[in-house]
């Protein structure tokens, strides 16, 4: 299959054939192009990186940015766990300490954040360990959020989480 020369406007009109056999020049040029492409058009960089990986042209990879993106993916999963756990715990506290204000909306929010956590665990089972690691930290933040949202004194909410980590994930658990 013949490949056309490519035009990358970010390179001041450099025309190259990325499939050239001049390997030293091409390796440096393509790595540089890929690195700049990352900053200019992320989606195109992703597509290009996928193609390079599929074709096993590893010398052309933008390793630095690829590592950064893989790290970012892992961090995003962890942020999702923390965010969903904080909101879940906050609403469980509100549910327990403001029974007169319970609504279907609260119930739905609790269910949705449980579902999001379960989805994360299904995609990456090892995240359950992370959930357990950050449970107490998230509870402290949820306690503060619950006090802010309810207008109740933070001292109303226990210093230690009153809920078992496995129990908060159970679909039928709503504290009384």
Automatic annotation (TrEMBL):
<dbReference type="InterPro" id="IPR002636">
    <property type="entry name" value="DUF29"/>
</dbReference>
<protein>
    <recommendedName>
        <fullName>DUF29 domain-containing protein</fullName>
    </recommendedName>
</protein>
<dbReference type="Pfam" id="PF01724">
    <property type="entry name" value="DUF29"/>
</dbReference>
């Amino acid at each position: 299959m013949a490949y056309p020369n490519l035009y990358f406007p970010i390179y001041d009109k450099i025309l190259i054939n990325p499939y050239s056999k001049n390997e030293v020049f091409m390796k440096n040029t393509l790595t540089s192009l890929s690195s700049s492409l990352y900053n200019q058009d992320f989606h195109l960089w992703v597509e290009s990186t996928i193609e390079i990986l599929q074709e096993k042209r590893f010398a052309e990879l933008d390793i630095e940015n690829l590592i950064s993106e893989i790290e970012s993916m892992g961090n995003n999963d962890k942020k999702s766990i923390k965010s969903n756990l904080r909101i879940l715990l906050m609403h469980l506290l509100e549910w327990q300490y403001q029974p007169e204000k319970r609504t279907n909306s609260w119930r739905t929010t609790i269910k949705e954040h449980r579902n999001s956590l379960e989805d994360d665990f299904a995609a990456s089972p090892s995240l359950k360990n992370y959930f357990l690691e950050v449970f107490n930290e998230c509870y402290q933040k949820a306690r503060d959020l619950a006090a802010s949202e309810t207008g109740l004194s933070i001292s109303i909410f226990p210093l230690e989480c009153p809920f078992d980590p496995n129990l908060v994930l159970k679909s039928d658990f709503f504290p009384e």
